[in-house]
Amino acid sequence: xxxxxxxxxxxxxxxxxxxxxxxxxxxxxxxxxxxxxxxxxxxxxxxxxxxxxxxxxxxxxxxxxxxxxxxxxxxxxxxxxxxxxxxxxxxxxxxxxxxxxxxxxxxxxxxxxxxxxxxxxxxxxxxxxxxxxxxxxxxxxxxxx
Length: 145
Ligand code: RB5
Fold this sequence. Notes:
Layout: E1 2-7, H1 12-25, E2 28-31, H2 43-54, E3 60-65, H3 69-75, E4 83-85, H4 89-97, E5 103-107, H5 113-125, H6 132-144
Parallel strand pairs: 1-2, 1-3, 3-5, 4-5
Helix pairs in contact: 1-5, 2-3, 4-5
This protein binds D-ribose (RB5).
D-ribose (RB5) binds near residues 10, 69 and 70.
């Protein structure tokens, strides 16, 4: 599995926690930022990273900002992206099983790094259930055109 990881200035701590998780798990990833100390604009990070997932360059994306909301809104504008904003382990599992989410968004001003690591681990390890859920995702894909 190849993962693209990105964050704005408000997501640096969880970004580093997810990097440690990916390193420990031996999962290949690219970190696309940010490297700044100042304020940046989350769409500048979410949109290019989401496009690279949509193109198939990466299997999954993990996007971090203050709330996770901006990253998730931007990512879901990209055709083929199913970004789930998740702040609990149950939803991390279910959004893989039912929604086949290909991007995970989390907010560093909402949860701490320990929970973020558990969420990311669960999300990375859980497979899509397929079946009736594939039919439902197909309806979204058809709508996207
Ligand atoms: C940055 O202040 C903050 O707005 C951003 O990280 C994110 O929470 C937006 O949704």
